[in-house]
Automatic annotation (TrEMBL):
PANTHER family linked: STAGE II SPORULATION PROTEIN E, STAGE II SPORULATION PROTEIN E-RELATED
Record protein name field: Serine/threonine protein phosphatase
Keyword set, alphabetical order: Hydrolase
InterPro entries: Bact_Sigma-Reg, GAF-like_dom_sf, PPM-type-like_dom_sf, PPM-type_phosphatase-like_dom
Keyword Endoplasmic reticulum listed: no
Gene3D superfamilies named among the record's database cross-references: 3.30.450.40, PPM-type phosphatase domain (3.60.40.10)
Domain of life of the organism encoding this protein: Bacteria
SUPFAM superfamilies in the cross-refs: GAF domain-like (SSF55781), PP2C-like (SSF81606)
Domain PPM-type phosphatase: start-end pairs: 207-426
Pfam families associated with the record: SpoIIE
GO MF term list: phosphatase activity
Length: 428
């Protein structure tokens, strides 16, 4: 039965030295900069047919599993298609172990046995057999001393010279290098996404009788994480709120925010006293943060059973103390100070108490707010204090958004440090 593949140009399309060089240069140009594995593999198949053969398959190995990209019965490149486990005696497994090019002559017949040994799919074997190839060429993809895959080519005649095999090997070398770069890029991207997901500020819990809101803006563009962090944990009757700042920016600092946040959670599980939580944070971080320190404000809130008030106990480690916006618009400052955590062994921390009545809001923030530098000066503590009365009675989300917006206006388009805000309002 005649097929369209019988009339397609074969490897002679790159038979001359100049044609071969132009072909390889075109491959390099078209694949250069590709950072997507699937796109690169499909492009490679597009080059391989008809220049190197009448049908092509890229098989990739992952442990003892194999997945393939290939041309289907219509000639369209598809994949990846997982094909499961490869037996040790499968011809592709042998090619993987040898890591050298192999040629297979196919005797005339309806279904040469070598196809069963080479092509790990009944559907693909049918496609190859319909091309009636006279030869199969298998070229390994070798990167870093390991064979990560094989390019399998079905060729219509067996009159090719050794030079054609060398072109195929050079082609596969360039494809393998591009695929490896794309794989590493995708792998690092997946790792970065997983890291960001684990370090991104958490969803705020629902705590009956209390309204919570937070805003977070990293200083490094194109990232959703940085050195600032916040967290809330506990029950509606007894919960802890923390805002902190690891020195530095970006992913490097964000890695340590995870350590700081988890240390605080673990310490508060045993004792919610802010002084003891910060003391535990200091001791744990001393052995972990080389040339780094952490500032933090930690507040324990306890519901007064016989009143509508929240009793707040505050501790700070080198961090701006929180501000309390009263329902009537007055602003109280919590008078408390403490040394940064992670630098000096054996630190002890003080505590200060404050009560939140119905409609009162406590605002915790990082130095990305008061130390935001505009064209002339810093935003400063006093600007923040004067801003708050405008939002007496407003919800905590509105308050956080307003502070962030004023800070950004003050920056006037300039760069900034990480910014974190967390507001706790007593009552609806």
């Amino acid at each position: 039965m005649s097929t369209s593949a019988d009339h397609r140009p074969g490897p002679a399309a790159v038979g001359g030295d100049r044609e071969q060089m132009r072909f390889l240069q075109q491959v390099s140009r078209q694949l250069a900069g590709s950072l997507n594995v699937r796109r690169t593999a499909l492009r490679a198949l597009g080059f391989a047919v008809p220049a190197l053969g009448h049908w092509a398959m890229l098989a990739f190995f992952d442990s003892d599993q194999v997945s393939v990209y290939s041309h289907d019965s219509s000639g369209r490149a598809t994949g990846p298609t997982p094909l499961g486990r490869l037996a040790p005696d499968h011809e592709l497994s042998r090619l993987r172990r040898r890591g050298t090019t192999a040629r297979y002559a196919l005797p005339a017949g309806d279904r040469p046995e070598i196809l069963d040994a080479l092509v790990p799919s009944e559907a693909l074997r049918a496609v190859v057999a319909s091309r009636r190839p006279a030869e199969m060429l298998a070229v390994p993809l070798n990167i870093g001393g390991a064979t990560n895959g094989v390019l399998l080519l079905a060729r219509a005649d067996d009159q090719e010279t050794s030079g054609d095999v060398l072109v195929a090997e050079e082609f596969v070398y360039r494809v393998a290098a591009t695929l490896e770069s794309a794989r590493l890029y995708e792998e690092r991207g997946q790792m970065a996404e997983a890291l960001q997901a684990s370090l991104r500020p958490p969803e705020l819990p629902e705590l009956g009788g209390v309204r919570l809101a937070a805003r977070y803006r990293p200083g490094a563009q194109r990232l959703s994480i940085g050195g600032d962090f916040y967290d809330v944990h506990g029950t509606p009757e007894d919960f802890t709120v923390v805002v902190g700042d690891v020195c530095g920016k970006g992913i490097d600092a964000a890695v340590y925010t995870g350590l700081a946040r988890q240390t605080i959670r673990a310490a508060a599980f045993f004792d919610r006293s802010p002084a003891r939580v910060l003391g535990a944070l200091n001791e744990v971080l001393r052995g972990q943060l080389a040339d780094r320190f952490v500032t933090a404000a930690c507040v324990r809130f306890q519901r007064e059973p016989e009143s509508a008030e929240l009793a707040a106990t505050v501790g700070v480690a080198g961090h701006p103390p929180p501000l309390v916006l009263r329902a009537d618009g007055t602003v109280d400052e919590v008078t408390i100070a403490g040394t940064v955590a992670g630098m000096i062994p054996g630190l002890t921390f003080a505590e200060a108490g404050v009560r939140l009545g119905e409609g009162d809001t406590m605002l915790l923030y990082t130095d990305g707010v008061d130390e935001a530098r505009g064209p002339d000066d810093f935003y400063g503590h006093e600007r923040l204090r004067l801003l708050l009365p405008e939002y007496a009675g407003a919800g905590p989300a509105t308050l956080c958004e307003a502070v962030e917006q004023r800070v950004l206006e003050h920056l006037d388009g300039g760069g900034h440090d990480d910014i974190a805000l967390l507001a706790v309002r007593n009552g609806a």
